[in-house]
Specification:
It contains 19 helices and 17 strands. The chain has an 8-stranded mixed sheet with strand order 1-2-3-4-5-6-7-8, with helices on one face. Strands 10-9-13-12-11 form a 5-stranded antiparallel sheet. The longest helix has 20 residues, at about 500-520. It has 4 domains: about 5-230, TIM Barrel; about 245-300, no CATH class; about 305-415, Beta-Lactamase; about 420-555, 2-Layer Sandwich (Alpha-Beta Plaits), CATH 3.30.70.270. It is of the alpha/beta class. It starts with a strand and ends with a helix. β12 and β13 (about 400-410) form a beta hairpin. Pfam families: EAL, GGDEF. GO terms for molecular function: cyclic-guanylate-specific phosphodiesterase activity.
Length: about 550
Amino acid sequence: MLENKYFIYQPNFFEGSIVSYEALLRFKNSDESPLHFISTIEDKENFDKAVISQVLSDKLSLKNPKNINLSINIFAQSLVSESFIEYCESVFQKHKGFTLELNFNHQQFDLEKIRLNMQCLKNLGVLFTLDDYGTECVNSDPLLDLNFDYIKIDRSLISTISDDYLSFCFLRSLYHKLNKFLGNTVIIKGIENVNQLNLINSFDSVIAQGCHLSYPLPLSALDDNLDTQAEQSLNKVNSENPPIDRFIYNINIAKNEAELAAALELFKPQDPFNLLGIDYNNFDLDALNRKYQELLDGIKSPSILFTTNLMKHCNCLFILRDEQGVAIYNSKKHVDYLECDLVGMSPDDVLARFPDYQMCLQLDQQLLNNDSDILMSNETVEVGSQTTHFHTYRQKIKYFDKTFIMIFVYEDTQDTQTSIDPLTGSFTKSKLECLDINTYKSLVFIDLDGFKNINDKLGHQLGDLQLKEAARLLKQYLRKEDLLIRFGGDEFVLCFNSYSVEDIHAKMLVIRSHFERYFEEKDMYLSFSFGTALIHTDVKEALDLADQLMYTEKSLKI
């Protein structure tokens, strides 16, 4: 059936690279179009078998056939034939990297049988494309339920988009329907000039085909293009994971209370934060449709698109959490910093990976329990071996009956560059100038006892080593949310988020006992005197009080 005929191969491009080739029939020694010949074929099943056999033979003749993906056009009615399916199974069990393209040409078929047979071949790795969607398939929405891997939009919808804005708008709306709402991977064919290509590229994720990108190639050229071929990617939202649009559709077509209740129950997981503001106890269909339309209108709003992109790419780390501490959104910079997308993760899962996250959640709760809508704080975060200091700004927002926290996080470059003591690794005195009194409720002023004697007898070099050890020991008994500040010389300040002076005093006695024992084992006497004070409104006032109490304790030792 293919005597005096051969195949050429039209490349499909994604992001500038070839992802596959479509096999196109041609006559030897003739420029005649094959369309008339194909329309006259009566034994369509055997013709399709011959085409598959020839394209397979072409592929196997290549140097690296496993790395080449080929697309083959077949008649839709062949998929109704059990003998054709058996033939395909015998071929595609052994040979991979094939897509079958179907064009239904306004004909009626047993779609359920085709769906089942398609699934049998899908299980073997065969992919499927619905061809000429939008013209030949103008009434083909039921065909979308066959779960095609690709939808190819007809070239007639492309030809005028660079000359007519309404044609472009129609094509764009069709693309959004297929890709954004139904989750299909879209192929647009017939791209003939650079203006058409630029407009198509504005759609983002699309596979492109056309003479502007490449004319059909002879079989021998496929080996030459191997280095440019990229892996095929699917943007699938299949029947097991339909888009939110489908759930709202099911709610609208519910025929009775039972169907409505079932549709709403299925919808709940799709909007876990109830951003559509549904009152499930007193459901209002008009309110749901109105709110959903507002969301759809937002897709077309330049200001909303700009705001969304601004949050995604802003120069700070941005995250939005609900009252339970679950992240609803985090910016690209936030994801890159943590090397993890927190959206949807439970707080327990996040804490298991990032223990410092506990302080973030505590500050969220502090704002939620406060009459104020804004909270500013300074936070220290450890990711791997890297410690980073941040200025953080929280804002509380209401949406229907829910409260959310917007957090803007800026790296404290001053802390990381100038406010860390190089000897002890603790903060320098300047840290007290920007201490967040919403976070830290008390401080302890420490002065080392016996350090001057070590310095005088053993020298400054050994004295510095003991000072470094002293700071290490103090850090060892502190929590990650506590602060250690080298105030100057052999003086330190500890900052805590506790209101209890008694608890802090008891903790310091335990630390001092371990501290003294450690240096006794090194045949050295080194201890410290301390004073504790609450931070009310003025850090300096608390610091002066703690300093006085420290000197009072030190004087009792003399």
